[in-house]
Amino acid sequence: MMDVRGAGAGAPPAVILLAGGRGSRLHELTETTCKPAVPFAGGCRIVDFVVANIAGSGFAHATVATQYMADPLERHLAARWRRDRTGLSLHMRRPGGAGYRGTADAVHRNLDPDTEAGEVIVLSADHVYGMDYRPMLAAHRASGAMVTLAADVVPRTAAHAFGVIDADSDGRVLSFLEKPRVPPAMPGHPDRALVSMGIYVFDRAWLSARLADDARDLTSGHDFGHDILPRAVAEGVVHVHGNGAEGAAPYWRDVGSLDALRLTWLDFVRADPPCALPDPVATCGIGPRASWPGLSRSVLAECGTVAMPGATVARGARVSRAILGPGAEVPASLVIGEDPDEDALWFRRTETGTTLVTAAMLARRRDERQRLFQVPANIVAIRKV
Fold first, then answer.
1. DSSP at 28
2. Rounded to two decimals, what is the model's pTM?
3. Do 11 and 135 belong together in one domain?
4. What's the structural domain count of the chain?
5. CB 321 within 8 A of CB 262
């Protein structure tokens, strides 16, 4: 494993992975597990991408802040990312009492006050991308900023789901708006917006002081996007890394909705996927692009459908633009994705046409149809007479 000290002077940074979210926009897929543990692209989970990035960046330790339905996530990380295989030590930390009050509170309660690290890298566990964090760390150190945000450019129509950034030509952030109803456009690009990727590098001493102040603030929501970052921008201590400033953003997708999850999964079915699927044994996702064994068997890419572990489609069925949840067995003659009204009757269908199909939904459809078409016993008796 490469030594992170090559990124610049000083001790390696502290790394905190925020992995406690439910992901309510994924609906039934997160009823029994948290969003980072949702299956993705064959044998992966969403969380595997950022863990692979941590390992591939040469970091040997990371704290994982878990909360909602954490058991599946913790079991997966312990089994797949064992230290003896990857050189990466993951410390799972659940909150006590009422749980974390927000993302800033989660970092505040998991940041070791005795750490020698000069910086803290805070990451979200529910994004799909491949990235070496060392260039961003080096840029942060060179800029003298207290906070550095990784940024990407998205269509302005989609920017309301992100933190939107306005930065000057030197990369200094002038404003930050968390999920604005009307996102501002990038200068000279009326249809685009510069948004935060949820990848932060902080000066440790600065962050510790601000988190302590925030913890005492009874009016705060204890959230980075709504509370910490706007105050930091007001201080003039935030720089941006990526599109619109130095460096270039990698392929990066927020898979927080059913549409985004399906479309991003399909990106990895192509012969030339946008980045490597996480491999804890080989390069940990940093390096040559790769395919996941068995991916072609789990994805019905020709009709825009993805299938999670245990899902099957019987011969004779037609399925398009769907997500088949774990264990969903589509019976012969069933058609999904062609009649919006019929799909909405039995399954969960988005406004843009993605249909989520789970084993429970299929069972409900089967039972209801059996009830509707069952011949009453008294009619059978009359026919016999």
1. G
2. 0.89
3. yes
4. 2
5. yes
